[in-house]
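hey can u check if this looks right to u? its 393 residues, i copy pasted from the old doc so theres a chance i mangled smth
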Amino acid sequence: MSRPFVPSPNVASIKESATIAVSQRAKALRAVGRAIIDLGAGEPDFDTPAFIRDATKQALDDGATRYTAVDGILPLREAIAADATRRRAGRDAPVTAGEVVVSTGSKQALHNATFSLFGPGDEVLLPVPSWVSYFEMVGLARANAIEVPGDPARGLKVTPALLERYATPRTRGLMLNSPSNPTGAVYDADELRAIVDLAAARGWWLVSDEIYARITYSMAEAPSVFDVASHRENVVCINGVAKAYAMTGFRIGWAVAPRAVAQTMTALQSHTTSNAATESQYAALAALTRTTEADAAVRDMVGEFKARRDAALGILTAIPGLDLVKPDGAFYLYFRAPGGDGTAYATRLLEDEGIAVVPGAAFGTPDWVRVSYAAARADVEDAMHRIVRSWSA
């Protein structure tokens, strides 16, 4: 007689990704004939630029089908290190390839960092709303996620004063995301510098998730911790190619970290996935080094995202008193749900209006919802009109 499955304590409390769950429900409704506008996904709806696809094909033709070093091919790590060094502007020694770990997406890079830096009894400050996986990653490391509510007057961003209010002697680190998923808010250089300085003064690790850095609307790129930090001994910077270059399926992300941390992350990765897909690494190398083509592709995509954002905001002005974060980056709208129950409202939108959005409970703010405008402009505009219609229903 077989025994019922009992999950290991390692994963007993883990929750399914809410964003993936929404996408699956939308697909299930489509499968039975419902017309669904899926605004739940965190994925650009653009084709990967042709020059990157061509570079991938060329890499395969050239035999890029074998294992690489666990931390990635040297030319890619050198390109990442060179960009980090440029941002440091001579403030410390150049970043080297030995301080870069290429992983299977920025999600794995974040997990590697969290698992390497934090452990039982540690507290990790998470500004909320926060991306859904941060909570689970901290839990998998057997550390404790401490939610720090963002200031509504500042686009739900946190300040040093808010972080200190929730810190204790057990605080070991902080995870920050700018531009933010789910709000689209961007920390400007002064705001970011103040948080970086606090982390340095308190001896906290700062894990900075900058995956949306190139998707911004009032600047070419969002400020990086490397732009403002006086030193980088306590900083781990996460990025990747998924969002800026519409390369989500290539699964390439990376961490830039102090050498000892990078070595630990590489050792961890050697026992989980080993190297990221070889041909994808060469595709990422093309995205980072063929800058003229890459910059043009990014500009076109961001221009369209901005047009969608502006159109959506224009339609939503029909809702009096709507509590909404105006996004200056990423491709999300975040607003407080009518009645203060984001889960109930998201369910109603899906079932009654055919619009898939993500309830804010997934991000630590249950009275809000996240709407992605990574969809055709006509669909985005149609969905916004339905949201307006639903408000008084």
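The chain has a mean pLDDT of 95.
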